[in-house]
Amino acid sequence: GIPANYDVAIIGAGPSGSIAASLLHQQGKRVIVIEKQDFPRFSIGESLLPACMRVIEEANMLEAVNEAGFQFKSGAAFSSKGKYTNFDFTDKFSDGPGTTFQVERASFDKLLADTAESQGVEIRFGESVQDIDLTQDPILTIKNREGEVYCIQAKYLLDASGFGRVLPKLLDLEKPSCLPSRTAVFTHIQDNIDPVALENIHFDRNKILISVHPENKDIWYWLIPLSDSRCSLGVVAEPHLLGDAQADLQTVLMGMIKQEPNLHRLLANAEVVRECSLLKGYSANVTTLATDKFALLGNAGEFLDPVFSSGVTIAMQSASMAAKCVVRQLNGEELDWDIEYATPLMRGVDTFRTYVEAWYDGRFQEVIFFDAPDNKIKQMICSILAGYAWDETNPFVSESERRLNMIVELCR
Ligand code: FAD
Predict the structure, then answer these.
(1) ipTM of this complex
(2) Does CATH number 3.50.50.60 belong to domain 4-72+99-176+283-352?
(3) Which is the closest atom of ligand 1 to the Cα of 39?
(4) What is the CATH topology of the domain spanning 183-280?
(5) What positions does the domain FAD-binding occupy (predicted)?
(6) Predicted TM-score (pTM) above 0.90
(7) Fewer CB in a 10 Å sphere around the end CB: N or C, the chain?
(8) Among 93, 10, 110, 4, residue whose Cα is nearest residue 50
(9) Cβ-based neighbours of 143, under 8 Å, separated by 6 or more
(10) Residues with CB under 6 A from ligand 1
């Protein structure tokens, strides 16, 4: 039969999909979201950046997020060879929110999806997109819970499928990332951190803690305090640095923690409360981000690296930018998607890329751990760490590589 007709079909109900759906629905567009899994479902990526709070507000979801009881986050802390430094996100160069949350993604993503539904968005859970036909207006082939296959048609298609990368795979858009392949091993712990017993160790529940391996600056750890005395804990390294490939993941992770004395002491009484997981080769890129028929959001497009917790922020930013373009096109405007969407989105992604690359080659670590930072410069860097990577008034955004190299020289 003739497939049901929508203005916009969205693949995936993660942060980018739910936010895009909400924004489009608010503009009076007929939206449908197809989500493969049932929520709540686990996802990695618990530390948000303040810049994403603006998009959450745009989607009228700020109240719901503020009231959900997530762990407050005010900044990022870094530790290396006993050195500790931190960035308070409220002390930044760019305008905009200076605080955010550290969230268990299962409940956070469900909250966003539920809120979008309560606003009137239709989400079909437990259904997966199997195929796409772009000959005319996009047609999606969908498999439902019962295993039946059906089609829908929409005037525009947004791929918010994250690491599912539905369109990059189906349309052969995948291209290798510029970053080397790294592996993350992670879990959730009941941290049992006793502040009294830890007089000499810095620890702030309101900040993500990024620790650098004492002997190898290519290896780093995240500790993301969550509510309920839990933390997300993980290590990132090129695979050959993670020790015995045959060992079980918990042994690998705990073996790596032992090698970082500060973290080892901090987590002396920690209990693992979730099976350890491994993700490898997660950095990904594409040849095309958007055309007049589809756009890729969030991780379905490009994923860099977890070190600055930029993933959800990029996902939400892309949703916001794409939604505005979709509305314009549906309202009859002719759009150059490269100029209007891909290029402006990539400006911020490329800013993050500059700092990710400089983290791993050591330049940015030198800056972060420099003893006598200039306050104005620190605020500009703080802005980027807070997610304001699209703020062209910040010289560390508009000329990121040149400015970074200048302060690297100063630090030396
Ligand atoms: P997702 O949240 O992945 O959502 C995609 C959805 O699409 C899923 O629910 C999936 O079920 C659905 N889907 C997939 N295929 C189909 C299909 N065929 N049909 C229908 N639905 C489908 N980001 C941060 O901001 N902070 C962090 O601290 C952080 N840490 C990270 C650590 C690691 C090790 C890694 C690898 C990533 C980390 N990230 C972090 C990144 C973060 O996980 C992602 O950027 C974020 O989840 C992207 O959101 P999204 O909406 O694009 O996709």
Answers:
(1) 0.99
(2) yes
(3) 9
(4) D-Amino Acid Oxidase; Chain A, domain 2 (3.30.9)
(5) 6-333
(6) yes
(7) N
(8) 93
(9) 127, 128, 130, 149
(10) 11-17, 34-37, 43-48, 128-129, 160-164, 166, 184, 279, 282, 297-300, 303, 306, 309, 311-313, 315
